Each structure stands twice: as C-alpha cells, then as structure tokens.
Amino acid sequence: MKSCLTLGALLLLAGCAATDTLPDRPLTDGQAYLMTLHVMVDDPLRAAELRNALRATGVFENVQTGAGKPGDYSARIQFQSGREIPPMPVIFLSAATLFLMPLSNGIDTRTDITLLHEGKVLKRYSYRNLTHKYTWLLDQGGEMQEQNIQRIARAFAGDLRQDQLLPTASPAQ
Amino acid sequence: MKAIGLTALLCSTLIIAGCGTRMAPLDYRSQHPYVPLTLDLGPVKSRFDEQAQRETIAALRQTGAFSFLDGGYSPSGYSLLISEPGGKSAGLLGALNAITLLTFPMPYSYQSNLRGNLLKDGQLLKTYNYRREGYSVAAWYVPPVQIESRREMLDELLRDLEKDRLIPQENPR
User: Fold this and answer.
1) Which ipTM score applies to this complex?
2) Which of A42, A68, A69 sits opposite B70 (nearest CB)?
3) CB atoms within 10 A of CB B34
C-alpha cells in the first residue's frame, strides 16, 4: 500500500515527460567548431530563441543575426509553430476539477532551412517536431517550447556537421 | 423569465467569444516587398504584450510589404524598430469602473504614440513619430481606441516608408 502511494505521489509530482516526434541527435564533443553562421528566422518573436538553441548546440563558432557580409555562410529559416490544445469543453472540465484532470498539450513546429553561400543555395533542410505532454495543476509543461526548438536545432547542427558543407573554423590563436 | 434567460445567454456568449478587440487589417497594400529586414517591437513583458505583437506582425505581413521579417538587432542590413513610447489611457478611472463591471461608460482622455526607427547596418537612417489623442469611454461594449490608433499609425508609417524609399525592394520595379 505504501509503495503504491509513494509511486502515485512520485508520478503526480514528477508528471509525465514530454515526448517528441523528432529523435534527439547526439552531438559528440571535442570536434572543431563550424564557421560562423548568419541565421535569419522569419518569425520576429521566436528568432532569438532559435538562434540561442543553435548556439547551445556547441557546433558553431558563432551564430549571428542578419545575412552577413559577402563570403559569409547564412541560413534562412521559415518557422511555423502552432499549439495543439484540447477542445474547450475538456478544458472547462479540467478547470472544474481545479486542473487535477490532465490535459493533452502539443506544440507542432515545421522548419524549412535554406543554407546559402554567396547567394547560392547549398542545401535545403526540413524538420518537423511535435512535442506532446499531459499537463495538470502542478506541471504546466513550461519546458515543452524549449525542448521543441532544441530538438530541431540539434538535428540541423548534426546534419550540417555530417554534410560538411560548412568549413570548420580556424582554431583561436 | 424569458428575458433573464436571453440576457444570460447573451452575456455568456460575449464572455466566451470575447468582445472583438483584435486589430483589423491595415489599409496599406504593396505589390513590391522590401528586402529581408529585422523587426524589433520591444520587450515582451506579458501575454498581452505577446498577443499585441503577434497581431502587429500579422497585420504587417498581410500588407505584402515584407518578404522576410527577422527578429532582434542586426549589425548588417536593414532594421525597423517600432515602439509605443509614453501614452495615456483610462488608468485609474478604468480600474474604478470595475465596480460597475465595466458597464458604466466612463469617459477618459487618451494619447497614443508610435515611433518607427529605421536603421541600416546599425546606423539610424530616419525616425518616424506619430500621435493620436482624444476622448473615449471605457466600457465592455466599446472597443479599446488604442488598437484602432495603433492600426492607423502603422498604416501611416508604411505609407511614409514607401514614400521615402529608404529600404530597397526585393524585385525593383
């Protein structure tokens, strides 16, 4: 009985982990940085978040805003993200239970990335990630958005490293 | 008894559907979009700010004047910084009107400002300032005048940007 209660309490406190349709890409440490990438995101409110996620991968020497100067490598990103929320009657039902009844929440993000150099398209990448989680009173799923973007950034960084389209940065003096 | 039922139905419909405070599309239309530029609408302090900024971005996109809207500050290329400095709204009078459940048409004077700073490679090219002021009433059945003021001023800003031709078009005429 005690173990059942402990298990129940642990589940309630920890909640269920968010799941993603895009698998997490392992990025090995100790490799040379790729050259500075100039990233343009067609979403003024989420652009900084996506650039930060790319910086956090640790793959690039630097990730900068704008198209850069001639000779620089740049990525143009079309970004579409939408929330999948349950129907209103279900939300009202959950509210009636003081949000003790879990609600199904999702973030669906489609990202189309065009890698450019000297105005020439080097390659196009496309990613879609659907992050899903059951949320309730004590776990509102605040980490979902961050996790959703991080997966996409890591997948793109991993593909770029694999394709070797971006030269490695010269080591710091 | 029927009248009470109808009133209750009307009130609940209004509460659920909201009172239509979304910004209407801008009147300005363009067939020749500008080159990609970064747009900064200032810090997001609350969900209301985020909602307002999303509406502004959607309205700007609908005009067809922007081919690509990035976010943040870019040291290279064109940047448009839009802010709403100062201004005056219902304030304390509006808060006091909560006693009447915002039903009494409380008169107040308002002032809305909009400033657009256009930058190229981090250097300020031109500043555009707009102001709207007048009287309105704060009540749940009167749409907030600030939203319409913002719409008019954004419209004016886009017309002035077209007139000044400081931003090159993607496919020149």
Assistant:
1) 0.75
2) A42
3) 20
